[in-house]
Structure formats: structure tokens, C-alpha cells
Design the sequence.
């Protein structure tokens, strides 16, 4: 069983595409469950999610990492995959995840991202981001993981304490904790389609700077915040 945990907040315009992509997997439907953990949306996010997801509930822990942890705690799967409500998953995503975890030493799997909004600028940004992630993996220096495309073996994930609840950088930090207890693998073919709307709206360089600022201030900073930010 694979459990897919999806945090959401006011995503009525995008979550249906995400969930529809999960119902079109080349994978038996009785071998995975969809869990949507909502941050108290004021729109139709939960109503839409209930048409597709097995479990939909309002989070009790703070921030995105807390929502992922809430979902993991109610998950039935031996494998826990995390993604985002504005992400689209290719049909072979779950199949590649299952194949990746045939190696019993692997405790975490992650992969690259491709842009939903396929402008030249966005493709270039993600080409460099994916190249950085691959180089970091090969050199063992930085495990540049993203919460929209991270997968864990459930018992080790819970053993290390799951996600640290912070405003940014929690998806990188968990990878380095998982590496201490087992093998973390980057699969170049395990990609998802990632929404670049936040970078299109606020500017890529500004968004990256803010993210780095938060990460270098321990994951939380008064000056910038990502939690429950409103996107177009």
C-alpha cells in the first residue's frame, strides 16, 4: 500500500487536476490511498477533494510540514508519498515508486520536477534546479528534495520524527535525517509536473532569495513567510 499525502489551502482551481492525475495511474487503485490534509480552506477545496480522495480532513498541526505529518499519522501504507495540491503526477509515478522501493535499504526516494507552465524561462529555471539536485546527490553534499515529489518508507520516516515543522527548508532537512538511517535515492525518471505560479507571480529571483533567507534563519523568519500565502 502506498499512501499519498497532499496538503492543501484554497486550491479549488488546481486540486482537481492533481487528484485526477492520481486516479489515472497505471497502478491498481486498491494498492494506494489518497489523503488530503486541508489548512482550513475558505473555498471549495475540500468539497472537490472528497470526490477523489479516500480521506479528507483539516490539519491540526501547524504549517505545511505539520499537514504532511498529520496525513502520515493516519496513513495505512508502508510507503508514504508527499506531493502538492497544484502538482500533476504522470501515469507511471506510483509504479516507479514501487519499483524504487524493491531495494530494502532505501528509506527515501525523490526525483526532479518539470514545469506545468512551460515557458522557456520556467524550463530553464527547473533545468538548473534539477541539475543542482542531481549534482548534490552524486556528490553526497546536498539532498535537494521537494515536498511535491518525496517518498518515504513509513516506519523509518516516523522513527526519525517525520517533517520538522518550519516555514521553509523542512523538505531538505528531513532528507538529511533519513540518510542517517538508510539509503536515500534520487531517481531522474521519477518526475512530477510542478506549478511555477509562485515564481511567475512574485518573481523567481525574489522567491528564491526569500526561501534561502528563511532556510538560513533556521526555517522560520519574521521578515518572510510562506505559510498560507495567497497565489493567483
Sequence:
Amino acid at each position: 500500500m502506498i499512501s499519498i499525502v497532499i496538503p492543501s489551502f484554497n486550491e479549488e482551481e488546481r486540486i482537481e487536476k492533481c487528484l485526477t492525475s492520481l486516479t489515472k495511474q497505471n497502478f491498481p487503485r486498491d494498492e494506494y490511498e489518497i489523503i488530503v490534509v486541508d489548512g482550513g480552506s475558505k473555498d471549495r477545496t475540500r468539497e472537490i477533494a472528497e470526490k477523489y480522495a479516500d480521506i479528507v480532513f483539516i490539519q491540526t498541526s501547524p504549517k505545511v510540514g505539520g499537514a504532511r505529518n498529520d496525513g502520515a499519522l493516519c496513513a495505512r501504507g508502508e510507503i508514504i508519498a508527499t506531493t502538492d495540491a497544484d502538482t500533476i503526477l504522470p501515469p507511471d509515478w506510483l509504479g516507479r515508486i514501487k519499483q524504487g522501493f524493491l531495494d530494502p535499504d532505501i528509506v527515501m526516494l525523490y526525483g526532479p520536477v518539470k514545469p506545468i507552465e512551460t515557458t522557456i524561462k520556467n524550463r530553464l529555471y527547473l533545468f538548473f534546479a534539477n541539475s543542482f539536485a542531481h549534482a548534490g546527490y552524486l556528490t553526497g553534499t546536498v539532498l535537494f528534495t521537494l515536498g511535491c515529489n518525496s517518498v518515504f518508507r513509513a516506519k523509518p520516516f516516523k522513527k526519525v520524527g517525520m517533517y520538522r515543522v518550519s516555514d521553509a527548508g523542512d523538505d531538505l532537512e528531513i532528507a538529511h535525517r533519513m540518510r542517517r538511517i538508510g539509503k536515500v535515492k534520487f531517481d531522474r525518471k521519477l518526475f512530477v509536473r510542478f506549478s511555477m505560479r509562485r515564481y511567475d507571480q512574485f518573481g523567481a529571483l525574489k522567491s528564491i532569495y526569500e526561501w534561502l533567507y528563511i532556510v538560513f534563519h533556521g526555517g522560520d523568519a519574521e521578515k518572510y513567510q510562506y505559510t498560507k500565502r495567497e497565489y493567483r
Q: What stands out?
A: The chain has a mean pLDDT of 86. The longest helix spans residues 120-139.
